[in-house]
Structures are given as structure tokens and as C-alpha cells.
Model the fold of this input.
Amino acid sequence: MKVLLYIPKEFDSVDIYRDMTDGLISHVGSNTEIVKTCHRPMFGKPKKNSDAENAPLSVNDFDIVHVFGCWNHTASSILLKAGRYGVPTVFSPLGGLQPWVIRKHKADRASMHRAVAAASAIHVCGTLELTTFQALDWNKKTAVIKNPILTRAVTMEQMAADMCRLYQKVLDSNVNMLINDEVEDAIGYLLLAGLDGEALRNRERKKNILASLQALTPAQWRLIFIYAHDEQIADRINAGISRLQYDAPQTDVEALERFPVTSKLKDGPLETNKLLAKSPLLRTKLNEVVTAKYPIERQLCIMFLNIRSELHQGSMPMRHLADLYEKIKTNNYDEDKLKDILRQMDILPFASRIVFILHDVIGLTEGFMPFEGKDDKTTDKIRKNITHLK
Done:
């Protein structure tokens, strides 16, 4: 784990804060690397013409950034921008959000609120600071870790250990920000293996899948298992691992310490017989367009319509994309009739984009695609809303 500590010079010049951050660096375990800076870090990579050796530290070279101190423009900017670049944050107000301090900064209160709300977690140094911060209701993800410079109730070693646990908790609570292309591809491969044993009969494909899995680190496997748990595809991922006979490092997700999930995804399988949309007109039109003579085509149409409804509500888990893959792959149906039904229901362009996502994310082959997939900018947006990945 690589951690960047950013502490403005005006705070680092105060003994109790400088000694705490320096002590944290000195007492972390061998699995954690911490770098401290008082200078504004950059985001992304240095420009081609810049002096790489003298370039500022890049937030993107770290797993997490820990920002100290309130009412500092650079500190607030880091908190606001880091999430957009896929880097979780911890923020230590250092007492700067006490009511009597906030009253001195009325003009900056709104911008400070936005920065605090953007933080992945808030670290406070005591129960009084926790109570006053909770009263603000700016961010519910809090942790109390005392400063050993101010109290004998905790040692520097204990503080460092608690802080590292907080860092890991933040990482485990924000896996969607941390999953890169390699991990995303591995998730798709494992889903394919779990859903479709026939796909592994292609020796070249199986060889490529195993090669990609072997390149993953234990930390990346941890991300996969947490993501699979949250997206309700753990059973399919584990089935894929079993079919591949791969010895993956396991993670007991239920035992992990994590912050509560804010987004609420629908539980259970994708509904195939009942429309989620409340529109009576849509239900009537569906009954007019497709009769009981075409049960599978009707179910597939309902699945596409329900996926559209869930995407509008922001409640679709990856499980439902896997459910659709399974339905398409394991059932016989009239492809031309399905296409005609979807056209009459005014959902064919949307369904075409979903079919492309099935191909691109899980690996549905062209031979099983009911119609041609559509790949455009709208498809990219839909894909992000389904996978919940950047």
C-alpha cells in the first residue's frame, strides 16, 4: 500500500502535527509505504517537456492520499479532484471544523463542505471532535484515532497500526475506484468461465484467460472478490475459478471492515415475467406486441425493459447482465421475432447497445448475439452505469 500524506506548511510547522505525521511514517509496517509532502502534488503524469526529476509528486502514483488541515485551498482541491482520478482520500481536519473555528470562515464554509463531503473517510483525533463533526452531517464515514503527541492513551505504534487499518478500510470500501483494465478484464473472463463452460473448450481462449489471472497480484484478487460480492456475481466468479481449476487467493469479504455502501442495488435475479416500470401503457403495449406463443422472446423483452428501468434508477447490479447472458446463451428462440418485438417496443437501439456490452464485457460471441451490437458514446455511458467502473 502506497500512501501520500499532504500537510500544508502552516500545519507542518506546528509540533503536534509534524510529530504525529513523522511518527506515522516511522512506525508503519513493512507492507505500507508512506511519503509526506508539504508541496502541491500533481494529478496524472508530468508533461513530456517537463523536468521529470524535479516534477512534483503525482497523486496517481499512490493508492490513497491523506490530507491534513482545513481552510487550505490546495488541501480542499486535492480532496475534490482525487476521486475523479480514482484515488481514495482520508481527511484529517485537525480541529479545524469545530463550531468556533467555522464561524471565522463563513465565506469559505460552502467550499469546505464540498471538499469534506468528497473525502472517502474523515479522521478525527478525539470524541469531542467526533461529536461536533457529526453534528455538521457533512460526511458519515468517520474514524477516531488519537494523536499520541497529545495523549498517553495511545502509543505511536498503536496510532500507526490504527491508521493503516483505516487506509485498508477505505480501499476495501472503494474498489470501484481502484479496479484497472487488467482487473476488469479478469472479472469478465471469470464471469464467462462461470456462466459458460463451453467457452473454455477453446484452448487458446482458456490459455489467455489463465495467463491474465496469473498476472494478478493478491491485492487485485482482493478487489475482484469485493467487487463480485457487491455486484452479486460471487457465485459465478467462484464457479469460473473452479472450472478453470485455478488456485486463487481467497478473501472473506463478509469479515472485512468496510464503510456502509451508499448505493442500493436490486437484490436477486433479473425479473423475467414482471415489468419493473409502473407504466400501464407500457404493460398494455407489451401484451399487444407479444403473445404467449413466444414465451422466451417475451421474457427477453421484459429483461431488456427492466434493465433500462434499473439503469434509470441507478439500481442495476452486474448480476443482471450475467442473468441476461445466461438467458440468451441457454435458450432457443426466434431471433427475428425478438428483434421485431424490440423494434415495436421502441427499445431495439437500447437492446443493441446491451448486446454489444454483453460481447465486450463478458464475451458473448457473435454466433449467439440475437442481433448486431451497437457501439457508440451512449454505449460507453451505459457500460459504466452497469459495471460501476470508471
Observations:
- The beta strands are 2-6, 33-37, 64-68, 89-92, 121-124, 142-144.
